[in-house]
Design a protein that fits this description.
single chain, 286 residues, alpha/beta, eight-stranded mixed β-sheet, five-stranded mixed β-sheet, binds zinc ion
Length: 286
């Protein structure tokens, strides 16, 4: 497993909870053209299996888990609703039971009971699929995405609220706090002021990223803001973002951050992300 130690006594681990394959049109987007979900579903080209990453932050104030990865239950028939075209035509996943977040935390010597906060970048299945391990934990998400993802409309949009823990009641943020770099708002999670939740809308309307700032370097846990660092640098929104314009604005802000600060950019499905984490490899400043 890959990890890095920062100046502020924080250690960050990348935890891979299996792999996912999506359509190339979803990953690479379609330039300036309008997005079209049917075209993504009809694309015969699957990506190679991509990592499904989640993150463990060992912080003096407690453990912070960012995203919960996927569950091995995806192999059960009926886990995904068959009526939804995305699960039929857009997604393939491979998760072994020991790859789930709970067993991997235990392998590192921790348990879900040690976790102070679970932060969700958004509620797509490969980020929220491990929530069952954290039924007793405080989960933090954006208010916008919680509302976007729950209920019947959430199901129609491809979320799986039926698999969230019973009486699920996340702590919801509206990002009221101070700007963080080029981002106009952020919520600071830790009393030490070194872990920030940053609104990065586009892939979903309330998508958030987690910025860990040790004063020298920013580790940017980027969720699905883009599938690779190259696509972020190119400013290309993915092929499923409901609002490509906002996605483009978010990618521009991330590029501004990488120009202002030494930033290690860590999206969930980037095959290079774990190597960049281990090496503390920052985005080249253009
Ligand atoms: Zn997603």
């Amino acid at each position: 497993m890959s990890s890095i130690s920062l100046q502020n006594g924080v250690r960050v681990h990348a935890i891979q909870t299996g792999t996912v394959s999506i359509k190339e049109l979803q990953r690479d987007g379609r330039g300036r053209n309008r997005r079209s979900l049917p075209r993504v579903f009809m694309d015969p080209r699957w990506t190679e299996p991509l990592p499904i990453l989640a993150w463990l932050i060992e912080h003096p104030e407690g453990l912070i888990v960012v995203d919960t990865g996927e569950t091995a239950r995806v192999a059960e028939s009926g886990y995904f609703p068959r009526w939804h075209p995305y699960f039929r035509f857009g997604l393939r996943e491979w998760v072994a039971p020991e790859q789930e977040m709970g067993p991997q935390l235990r392998a590192l010597g921790f348990s879900p009971g040690d976790v102070r906060w679970v932060v969700l970048t958004h509620f797509h299945t490969d980020h929220a699929g491990g929530l069952a391990h954290f039924a007793a934990n405080e989960v933090v998400s954006s208010r916008t995405d919680y509302r976007f993802s729950r209920g019947l409309l959430g199901k129609a949009r491809g979320f799986l609220p039926q698999h969230w823990p019973q009486d699920f009641a996340p702590t919801l943020t509206d990002f009221p706090d101070a700007p963080f770099g080029p981002f106009p708002a952020s919520t600071t999670l830790t009393a030490a002021g070194d872990v920030h939740l940053v609104p990065t809308p586009g892939h979903t309307p309330g998508h958030l990223s987690v910025a860990i700032d040790d004063g020298e370097t920013v580790l940017f846990l980027a969720g699905d803001t883009s599938y690779t660092e190259q696509l972020m640098l190119a400013g290309t929104p993915d092929g499923v973002s409901p609002d490509p314009g906002r996605a483009r604005q978010t990618l521009a802000r991330i590029r501004q951050l990488t120009a202002q600060r030494r930033t290690v950019y860590l999206p969930t499905h980037d095959p290079e992300a774990t190597t960049r984490l281990e090496r503390g490899q920052v985005t080249p400043q253009s």
